[in-house]
Design brief:
The complex is a heterodimer. Chain A is of the alpha/beta class. Chain A is built from 12 helices and 12 strands. The chains are: A alpha/beta, B mainly alpha.
Chain lengths: 293, 339
């Protein structure tokens, strides 16, 4: 609310100019409500579609593959090395980017080209919901955005409330198999695991998403192993690798599962779908499969 | 001492040291398994926790075996390439042979070969073809009428290595990252706990390569005198060279297929052995099998424990040891292996 008031107050000063603060605390002045946005962040692309602001989106990255409509938007290249020529040709009045995934040089280049850059850097679930509201206010879709954020919030609280009463099985979440990368302190996935009532065996293995040795990972004797798939084709193979360790409780009880990394590792609205997926895998006796997807 | 006595003594010392190191490595690692627990697992006691069994028997043991095999294979390949080229700097990674093999493996993965015994056999095959092509190319570039000049051979190896590394980069760029995502990590050279079937294949490939290099090692000694001299002593030089080349390429290829390109083991170990045991290849080849394994096992145990609970790539450690060693060799012995 305070943010919306700030936007309104700022809008009153010059004719149409709009002064905004992005979530990283940088302030930028826009000539008006942005109508031609280039998104360098897949989760921002998803969010803009989810709040009905997709007609403002004129360019996306090669990794923006959801929803299907995103694939029909003009592509500006990858997240690390976008094509500046393509971006300029699209005549954006705003580029949305993230320090976690894009490069600093990209922002500097864009500012040199006099294209305003709105930086987002969500790390917690609350940031995801906050970003939805901010993007709503920024694009003039505040009502849709707050409806979406409120609905997601209700679903998150629903999962958390039911899970808080349950026993907490030890869970090993594998973000990437080789080298082994796991979620630890401050990682969104660690937060989600805690919310669904899981005891992540790597929760204190380091900061963010550290590399870890295989033996340090299995020594927590996980009762459930969750393997994130990327692009869909390394699920079964990674499964075999873990199934070899017959002494692990998770292997004995056959609780090795796959989840979509595209859903769980992006800070978009689908994170809540991912949260519910995790809840079903960790507590199948309580969280029943829904008809979704 | 006669060669036989020297061989027996050297093998006895190396085998003992290797056994001690392998035993010690079973007790070292980032999982909190106490020495008493490791002993319980090794003794097959029912009191051993299942998780400790996984750590000791499914993770540490196969990884130790993989280190011994890969190190032995690389050192024997080094002895073979050095004898073949009469050049102390010849070694799979220096010659570009490892890069060729790595290109073969990446290409095989692009074609969809991944895991499972048969597919791994395919990977080894691709790696072997890559190693063979790279080795032949280096030889063709560097060969002069009088033999293989040291600097030319090294430069040819660098050039061929760069070529295949670039080819790998092209493959990684044009293929979906999700299919080759692990490649960048694998290219650093990493040992892992291989499943039993793959370990068996690794043993078989190493044994075949070892035999191909060991069998003509007497003739290889004579080749050190020069090809004409060897010819007069009844050595079919071309046949011997083809055999040793095939054996060394197979060894290098197997290591690349199962662990990735690991540099400099084939340089450090044969050189140290030559200082200790002399230049007789009949002694060097079997000694290199054990000493190479011992060296890589120590390096890999460091890789596992230096930054625990994370891990370094063992290829990084061998390169740290190998690069200064290479400089020393390049400056001190730029001519040929003394006969």
């Amino acid at each position: 609310m305070a943010f919306a008031a700030l936007v309104l107050a700022a809008a009153r000063v010059p004719a149409d100019a709009l002064a905004v603060n992005d979530p990283t605390g940088r302030s930028l002045t826009l000539p008006g409500v942005p109508r031609r946005i280039v998104s360098l962040v897949p989760s921002v692309t998803e969010t803009l579609f989810a709040i009905g602001a997709q007609d403002r989106l004129v360019g996306v990255t090669d990794f923006c593959d959801y929803p299907p409509g995103a694939r029909r938007k003009p592509r500006i290249g990858g997240m690390l090395a976008p094509s500046f020529e393509t971006i300029v040709t699209l005549k954006p009045d705003l580029v949305v980017a993230t320090p976690a995934g894009n490069r600093e040089e990209t922002f500097v280049q864009l500012e040199r080209l006099r294209i305003p850059v709105y930086l987002v850097n969500p790390t917690r679930l609350a940031d995801v919901l906050d970003l939805i509201s901010r993007l709503g206010a920024l694009t003039g879709h505040a009502a849709e955005a707050s409806r979406l954020a409120a609905a997601l919030d209700v679903r998150v609280k629903g999962v958390a409330e039911r899970a808080s009463q349950l026993p907490r099985p030890r869970v090993l979440y594998v973000l990437w198999p080789d080298p082994l990368i796991v979620p630890a302190r401050g990682a969104l996935v660690s937060e989600l695991l805690a919310l669904v009532g899981a005891d992540s065996v790597t929760a204190n293995a380091g900061e963010g998403y550290p590399r870890l040795s295989l033996e340090a990972a299995v020594s927590g004797a996980p009762e459930v192993i969750i393997l994130a798939s990327h692009g869909g084709n390394q699920g079964p193979m990674a499964r075999e690798k873990w199934a070899r360790f017959a002494g692990l409780p998770a292997v004995k009880s056959g609780r090795i599962h796959s989840v979509s990394g595209d859903i769980l590792h992006r800070y978009g609205p689908r994170v809540v779908d991912g949260l519910e997926d995790l809840a079903r895998l960790v507590h199948p006796e309580v969280f029943k499969p829904s008809g979704r997807r | 001492m006669s060669p036989t006595a020297r061989l027996v003594a050297a093998l006895a010392v190396l085998a003992t040291a290797t056994a001690v190191a392998a035993m010690a490595a079973l007790f070292i690692g980032s999982a909190p398994v106490s020495p008493r627990d490791v002993l319980a697992v090794l003794g097959g006691r029912a009191s051993a926790a299942p998780v400790d069994q996984v750590v000791v028997l499914s993770l540490r043991l196969p990884r130790i075996a993989a280190a011994l095999l890969a190190g032995g294979a690389l050192a024997v390949a080094g002895v073979g390439f050095q004898g073949l080229t009469r050049n102390p700097l010849a070694e799979p990674s220096v010659l570009g042979v490892s890069s060729g093999a790595a290109f073969g493996v990446v290409l095989a993965q692009v074609f969809g070969l991944r895991a499972g015994p048969l597919e791994i056999l395919g990977l080894v095959g691709f790696a072997f073809v890559g190693a063979f092509v790279a080795g032949t190319a280096v030889y063709a570039i560097a060969a002069r009428a009088g033999g293989l000049p040291v600097h030319t051979l090294v430069l040819a190896g660098v050039i061929v290595g760069i070529f295949f590394s670039s080819a790998i980069t092209v493959l990684i760029s044009i293929v979906d990252f999700d299919r080759l995502g692990g490649v960048v990590h694998w290219l650093l050279g990493n040992l892992g706990p291989l499943p039993p079937a793959e370990l068996g294949l690794f043993v078989a490939a190493t044994a075949l390569g070892f035999w191909l290099v060991l069998h003509p090692s007497r003739q290889l000694n004579l080749l050190a005198l020069g090809e004409e001299g060897a010819l007069q002593l009844g050595v079919d030089a071309e046949r011997v060279k083809r055999r040793i080349f095939a054996g060394a390429a197979l060894l290098a290829a197997a290591v690349v297929a199962f662990a990735g390109p690991i540099g400099f083991v084939g340089l450090i170990v044969p050189h140290a052995l030559r200082l200790a045991l002399g230049p007789d290849n009949r002694v060097l080849v079997p000694a290199a099998l054990l000493a190479g394994g011992l060296f890589l096992l120590v390096a890999d145990t460091l890789a596992r424990s230096l930054i625990a609970p994370a891990e370094l790539s063992v290829g990084v450690i061998t390169s740290f040891c190998g690069a200064p060693f290479f400089v020393y060799l390049l400056r001190s012995r730029t001519e040929r292996i003394e006969p």
